Amino acid sequence: MQSIGKRLREGLQGLVRAMVVQFRTHPRLLRALEHFLQHHSHAEFKEHALGLIAGNYERIAGVLLLFPDRIMRADPRQAALFAVLSAVTVIQAQTLENDSVWEKVAPMDDKELEREVTDLIVAYLTRSPAAQRTKTTA
Do 114 and 14 touch, CB atoms closer than 8 A? Predict the structure, then answer.
């Protein structure tokens, strides 16, 4: 079981690193796409772009589902998608937003960001909600 957990963490580190690199390598393109999707009404393009993005997130979540014994959530697929969306949200806020409150509250370099986001995802996926409730009520 320990080696499966180690492989999950290592796999996640690689995925998170790739996401950080993507956001750092193409910030203007990603900002422009985000702006276009939020502010333009070209429905066909918007639907197509969102479909591609969602498909990419689903494929990343599919990698997490290679470790079903480590995901302690009632719905592993939903948990994997939530973990990916959470990671992307944190990475996007930290890397793309120029006046991010993240820089004021929790400044970190890319290595720290990768480590923290990986820890966040591992903790979420591998901790059962029942254990969390028990600790909270204790």
Answer: no
